[in-house]
Amino acid sequence: MTETKGEEKITTQTEPSDQPILPIRVGKTTYTVRLHFSENSRETMEEKVKKLIRRDIQEENF
User: Fold this and answer.
1) Domain annotation covers residue 4
2) Rounded to an integer, what distance in angstroms lies between the CA atom of residue 42 and that of residue 45?
3) Domain total for the chain?
4) 51: which of 2, 4, 9, 33 is 20 to 30 A away, CA to CA?
């Protein structure tokens, strides 16, 4: 279901989901983030994180 408040669109899921949920609080607002992992991925989560770390080090993005 999508609800509109002013210019904001708020989407709520009415059916239960097997996706993990990660609540993130920014200031006084809490965002609910659903995580999705591809079942067809060729990399493990560990490999993905290491790749991100290596890229950040190469780009001096830390």
Assistant:
1) no
2) 10
3) 1
4) 33
